[in-house]
Amino acid sequence: MKKFLSLLLILSIYSTSFAFERTVLAEIFTSTTCGPCASQNPYFDSWYKNSPYKNRVAVIKYHVWWPSPGNDPFYLANTTENSSRVSYYGTNYVPRGIINGTSDGSSSASTWITLIQNSMNYVSNFDIKILGNVDATTGGNLTIQVTADNNPIVSGTLVLHVAVVESNIQ
Predict the structure, then answer these.
(1) Cα dihedral sign for 13, 15, 18, 20?
(2) Residue 144 located in a structural domain
(3) pLDDT tens digits for range 104-120
(4) Rounded to whole angstroms, how far apart are CA atoms 105 and 20?
């Protein structure tokens, strides 16, 4: 029994030594011409603004070209990248929330919130550090270095997506 407890203690120390606090990714598909988005977005935004998890949740909103007339200014300002993510997830309705790239929260902001809260219970096997500088002499270019320290137990093909986003656009 003593050997079993010692082994259990060693395994628990080993497994937690490679555990990192997880940042949850919420990808929200929306449009300024979408009626249901007009209620779901403010509900979600209010929760996010006041959430105790705010520093552990990254929110990216992708604007789409539907419903008609398809004149969403945020979509028109960034058609290539928005269309790319729509295609990546096969999105054909808005609003839609995808949490951590896998959980489909459908059109319900309350479901998005529940999925985010449930994700807080999981740790990450990776610690990603991002360092950046803006050099105004080169036209405001941003250079980012991403380093991932991974758990040696993780295997398989891994993909790292990096996104630069803007907030508080006026």
Answers:
(1) negative
(2) no
(3) 999 999 999 999 999 99
(4) 25
